[in-house]
């Protein structure tokens, strides 16, 4: 069973907004450090950003998949396709984070890694919009 905050669109949106704002701030810091060619600090912040995505967004995604999504489909079978799409978004985020970690370990911080962090934000913005769209309808 999911926590009560996950089923209420306003509190759920607040969770999303807070995590996204933190991710955007980390991206800005990494961009400035790369621009200043401070690769060592950029790499440190990149690992902080990876941890952020793993502990905030992906842990939240795991909780949604274990509880909220199952409950929504049980309550309204018409949401099944939307839930499949939302789960696919989570898989995309997981893939990007895994790819970022592998690149950081093998090549260090690069502009390509920064672009992938930006991609995480874009995917998550769309995902959150779609998720929040179906919450009130259940």
From TrEMBL:
Entry superkingdom: Bacteria
Gene3D superfamilies: nmb1532 protein domain like (1.20.120.520)
Stored InterPro entries: Hemerythrin-like
Annotated Hemerythrin-like domain residues: 15-135
Protein name per its UniProtKB record: Hemerythrin-like domain-containing protein
Organism: Ornithinibacillus halotolerans
């Amino acid at each position: 069973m999911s926590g009560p905050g996950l089923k209420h669109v306003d509190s759920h949106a607040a969770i999303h907004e807070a995590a996204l704002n933190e991710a955007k701030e980390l991206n800005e810091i990494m961009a400035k450090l790369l621009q200043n060619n401070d690769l060592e600090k950029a790499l440190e912040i990149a690992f902080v950003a990876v941890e952020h995505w793993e502990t905030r967004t992906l842990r939240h995604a795991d909780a949604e998949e274990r509880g909220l999504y199952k409950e929504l489909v049980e309550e309204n079978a018409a949401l099944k396709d939307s839930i499949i799409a939302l789960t696919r978004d989570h898989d995309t985020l997981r893939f990007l984070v895994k790819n970022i970690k592998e690149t950081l370990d093998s090549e260090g911080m690069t502009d390509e890694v920064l672009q992938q962090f930006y991609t995480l934000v874009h995917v998550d913005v769309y995902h959150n919009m779609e998720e929040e769209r179906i919450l009130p309808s259940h």
